[in-house]
Amino acid sequence: MRGAGGTRPQEEEEESVFISMADMTISFLFVIMILLAFFASQFTDPDTVPHSQYDELLKQKDDILRQKNDMEKELHQVQAIVGAADLQVSDEVQAMKDELEDLRRKLAVPGAPNQMEVYNNRVWETRRALLTSLKKQIDDEIKGVNVSISANFESLQFSGDGLFETNVDVPTAAGSLRVSKIAEILDRNLGCYSLGPRKRFSPDCNPGYAVIDSLQVEGHTDDRGADILNMRLSANRASSVYSLMTSQRADLVKFYNRNAQPVLSVAGFGKGRPIQSNATDTGKDANRRIDLRFIMAVPAKETDISAIKNALSEVPR
Question: How many CB atoms are closer than 10 A to CB 126?
Answer without folding.
Answer: 20
